[in-house]
Give the backbone structure.
Amino acid sequence: MAGSGPERRALQRLPDALISKIAAGEVVERPSSVVKELVENALDAGVGRVEIELENGGRDLISVADDGGGIAAEDAPLALERHATSKIASFEDLLEVATLGFRGEALASIAAVSKCELLTARSAGDGHRLVVEGGRLAVDEPVSRPRGTTVTVESLFYNVPARKQFLKRPATELRRALTVVQGYALARPDVTFVLRHARDAESPGRELLRAQATGVDAAGRLDRIAQLFGEDLVKHLIALPEARKEQGISGFVGDRETTKGRRLFLFVNGRLLRDRAILSIYYKAVRDLMKGERPPALFLFLDIPPESVDVNVHPQKAEVRFRDAALLGRIGSALRRGLEAAKGEDPAPLRELGGPVAPPAWTGAGEVRETPAPGSWRPGGAAGDPAPAAPSWAEELALRYGGAGAGEARKLAEVAYRPQSSRPVRLSGKARESLRLIGQYKGTMILLEGPESLLVVDQHVAHERILYERFRRSLREEQPASQALLVPRVLELSAAENAALAECSAGLERCGYSVSRFSGGSAAITAIPAVLPDREAESLVLRIATRVAGGDELPSEGEALGEYLLTQLAASRACRAAVKMHEALSAEKMESLIAELFACEHPYTCPHGRPVVLELTDRDLERRFKRR
């Protein structure tokens, strides 16, 4: 019959091979997923050292070797079966998981989509070897090997070509694997981590990351941070308040110098996470206390009872759910106190007024009012003292504009201002022809009157949007000029950040940069775009490297990558050149700025995504004044 749907099949059980491939799709997305699962298994085995070998970004080979407890020969075949685990035995165990792995899916899922070899031994010399290809056991034999386990994964997704074609370039996959290892190196400073990479089987392996074991106390964690990110970052870190350690909250926040990069790391019981609730608390604390949008570095370690956190809410264990609702409040308090210490500002001491104090002169409508004699400004006096008299101009205002009579002054300082007379100026922009300029608020906001609303424009971000579009057009039309540096600017980067820098090196060259990468994570900027000062050029490179290492995606095509970096360059230059806050503008300058703003392609947001214009409609105002 025309138009009928496809014939429905009868219900049937899926073959085990297909079930394994479906499960692998949830657990194994890319080489970094394999590295994550194998490193977690190694750490659960009580290791002191983990060595990772990669070829071609992990696409051709991944090997993770540890010196842990190993697997008994009789249990080795079971380790490659789905849902076989020694970490939980009942539903109650699932509610208090203390290990990184627990589902028993990782090895089976990896073996289903690769050629996998498992070498393991509980004691030196008494080992076992298994080889599985696409989920089928090919080799099962005893071998002699040191204590510990080595898992080697070759030809990932060789039997699932549809999945393999979605892998990124080898440099991108390598950077993601480095990010995983770096995260667990931060979580476990008591374990030595080594990662080597070779372009192919014929090339020698190059050591990209080495972190020697340290202590698990605060000093040991700082040593590990220094190993991965350099000594300079550690100098700018402040420990969170000691009192919170008893509640399982510890770590470090950075000062303003660390806002150049984006180094935000959160660990729950040794598990690296990107918890949006905690990060939003941190971002808000940064805005409130540091009055900025770029967050300083954060290394937060939560060691809480396993039963108070649910780790079984995500297939890849990338998210958790806290059962203690008050925990977020305690974390927020610790972060705020840490940021206050990182600001390096002592709070102003409060003191009682011990006698007559003269108030400042008050300025209103461009006219300075004379203050009364000091004695008349006392907050209180002996019985019989005359009450302070109100200034004569306050009586004049009270009579002219109505309201309470100008009698006794009931506050330390009562201020009255004459309203300024202002004549609205009609704007000349293409859009919003009917807008009228009211004036400027505190040298920061421009107020506009529309037909049915009041518009508030942030003058800094408005000018930033204008300059950004202007610079972006200019940079797109011509090759940015480059300026060689007499003294190179050296950046201390982690291995993951250095790999991220390598990914965008071609785009940076197009923008006018020249960057040399060193072994051990450092890089030197030898030339910068001529349009940027030294410090801003350095900050932009560090910001890009840390954002990409933190998970931001770069365009894969060379031309798109260059366009992305030119956009970042234009945004950085526009921010520095834009008119500042608290800068008084004449009516003519405000009119010109607003007219050019509404001629932009995107006038309502700045290049960083912040709003430029806020609108308060007449209906909103009427509701506020309870007229509706």
Observations:
- The longest strand covers residues 482-492.
